[in-house]
Amino acid sequence: MFKLPRTDVDVIVVGAGISGLYAVYKLRAQGRSIAGFESAADVGGTWYHNRYPGARCDVESIDYSYSFDSELQQEWTWTERFATQEEILRYLEHVADRHDLRSAYSFETKVVSAVWDDTDSTWTVTTDTGVVKTARFVIFATGVLSTANRPDIAGAESFAGESYHTGEWPHDPVDFSGKRVGVIGTGSSGIQSIPVIAESAERVVVFQRTPNYSIPAGNRPLSEEFIAEVKADYDERRRLSRASGGGTPNSAYPKGALEVSAQERTRVYDEWWNRGGYLFAKAFPDQTISKEANDTAREYVEAKIRDMVNDPALADELIPTDHPIGTKRIVTDSGYFTTFNRDNVTLVNLRKTPIETIVPTGIDTSGEHFDLDVIVYATGFDAMTGTLSRIDIRGRAGRTLLDEWSAGPRTYLGLTANGFPNLFMTTGAGSPSVLANMVLGAEQHVDWISACIGYVDAHGGSAIEATEQSVDDWVAECNEKAAGTLFPTANSWYMGANIPGKPRVFMPYIGGFANYGAILDDVAAAGYKGFDIR
Ligand code: N01
Predict the structure, then answer these.
(1) Residues with CB under 6 A from ligand 1
(2) Helix (H) and strand (E) counts for the chain?
(3) Same domain, yes or no, for 328 and 460?
(4) What's the pLDDT at 341?
(5) What is the CA(395)–ligand 1 centre distance, in A?
(6) How many domains, in total, are found in the chain?
(7) Which SUPFAM superfamilies match (predicted)?
(8) Is residue 4 part of a domain?
(9) In this structure, are residues 411 and 474 in contact, taking their beta carbons and an 8 Å threshold?
(10) How would DSSP label each residue in 357-379?
(11) Per-run averaged pLDDT (10 residues), the chain, 534 residues
(12) Which side of the chain, N or C, has fewer Cβ within a 10 Å radius?
């Protein structure tokens, strides 16, 4: 029988966010030795870095939590329907303590390269602290919104005040009181932070290039009765989540938007509006498939925005016109549109008066100079592939992931790539990822990966690799699924459209969480169909 290579550890896990932590837990439970690397000083991933004012999750807390530990599920009590960043981070720290997960990690240690040796079937991983480790398997649990996008704006370095990126927010609280604050960007991060900053700042200037759809969260404290009800039947809630399209126990109205009367349609939109947040995109099943159906949702939301914003001309500026509603993630907000009714908040429409330069005292647009003490960059991320593409990953025959993905990510099942044996990725491109509940997605991936590694071992293999054909087929399947929707028509970060020069490809798998889970199960049940094991 093949003799396994001698390596420092069995598995290297890169990242201590939601999926990395669970990977350490799960693989350790299988008796495997692990080395974890995390660039931050502690656990939490996205929730470690995104601590800007107002940061919350837009998936309900009771669903956006691990299901693998039923005692934890019973013991932990979420306080609000949509948890704050602070509460989610506290939860992840608690999970890390509970299962002693930190001991697997080297923190403040960034992986800079991973190189495969085909003779030995071994990965050699090198970090920026000089630590080098070998392993049979590598799991990149590096997140999909983990590399900040800092736009190249002339003069940015010259600004004499404070500047912050929402995705790299400092740990010490930022005090905005009495300050003039410019916020660049109106995605989820900008829209969540603007109302909170406006409460204490002297003035907030919102630099908006593209308006976004946003729906009030309808956030509320969770009552003891509600929590008890959820906990009494948590397993069923999780079962429904896994059987759903988006990884939460929610489903669309059973008829299409164009199959019902105008009255019924309004009633359904009212109901979904009152539920709050991004799920509005899924009120009717055809909403992001048919332009006509989408228009009915768009008209409904436009009227709501006009109701919330006192100045009709300002409302016009805040209403999106460039994409069908839901084809960019609808923001889940707390008081965004009504914030523009405040005297200390100004909207600058960058489509009319673009930023020309940043100067020591503030921002010059083509129309006006704005004196600022603080600039907040809420300019998003090089999403889904940005973090992996910054690591020098070299597979068989020196093939680099960067080259392989130069025209867009090429995965099999979102988990593996041809040419890169024994390498796994979690919750990224080619999987439902950000289109579904990321915590259950992380569990789904890690469970699959750990079973896969177990299978390779049980069959005396040293390496498993997706075939080129299976990658071609999966890429085609992902593209075909996306082409059946309105999503590719939007200039979204799902499409890579927010990063100059990035290939325009719809990156997540949009066939649904449950369908995807069934595909993963089938592949495993068929002896890892589409892979070569050697
Ligand atoms: O980033 P974004 P985000 N000049 O890319 C603008 C998740 N998330 O951090 O659209 C001027 O959406 C850019 O303008 P444009 C969630 O999945 C979730 O807000 O490119 N503006 C856009 O307005 C979300 O979708 C939560 O024209 C510039 C903004 O910056 C994802 O993370 C909270 C610019 C970036 O918006 C990303 O959200 C936070 C420039 N040069 C994040 N460059 C919740 O759970 C960029 N922009 C609620």
Answers:
(1) 56-58, 145, 151, 153, 166, 184-190, 192, 207, 209-210, 329, 332, 350, 378-381, 434, 493, 498
(2) 16, 20
(3) no
(4) 98
(5) 33
(6) 2
(7) FAD/NAD(P)-binding domain
(8) no
(9) yes
(10) EEETTEEEESS-EEE-SEEEE--
(11) 79 98 98 98 98 97 98 98 98 98 98 97 98 98 98 98 98 96 98 98 98 97 98 98 97 97 98 96 97 98 98 98 98 97 98 98 98 98 98 97 97 98 98 98 98 97 98 98 98 97 97 98 98 97
(12) N
Is there a single domain that holds both residue 272 and residue 391? no
167 falls within a domain: no
Q: Enumerate residues 6+ apart whose C-beta is below 8 A from 495.
A: 487, 488, 504, 505, 506, 507
Provide the angle, in degrees to the nearest 10, between the axes of the packed helices 438-458 and 513-525: 0
At residue 5, the pLDDT reads 78
Task: Quote the pLDDT of residue 326.
Answer: 98
> Which one of 50, 89, 192, 209 would you pick to mutate in the ligand 1 pocket, going by the greatest count of ligand atoms within 8 A of its CB?
209
Mark whether 21 and 129 lie in a shared domain.
Answer: yes
**Which domain covers residue 314, as residue numbers?**
180-224+240-377
Structure confidence at residue 454 (pLDDT)? 98
Task: Indicate whether 115 and 206 sit together in one domain.
Answer: no
The CA-based angle 217-221-225, given to 5 degrees, is 125
The CATH number that applies at residue 61 is 3.50.50.60
Last residue of a domain, one of 350, 377, 404: 377
Among 40, 60, 59, CA closest to 50: 40
So what's the ipTM on this one?
0.99
* 476 and 331 inside one domain: no
Q: Given this model, what pLDDT does residue 1 score?
A: 46
Task: Give the residue, by CA position, lying nearest to ligand 1 atom 37.
Answer: 380
Whether 102 is in a domain gets the answer yes
137 and 214 fall within a common domain: no
Quick one: which of 414, 400, 399, 434 has its CA closest to 474?
A: 414
Dihedral of alpha carbons 230, 234, 236, 240, sign: positive
154 lies in some domain = no
Q: Which of 349, 377, 405 is the last residue of a domain?
A: 377
Rounded to whole angstroms, the Cα distance separating 474 from 497 reads 22
My answer on whether 398 and 425 are in the same domain is: yes
Statement to judge: residues 393 and 366 lie in one domain: no
Residue from 48, 56, 145 to probe ligand 1 pocket by mutation (most atoms less than 8 Å from CB): 145
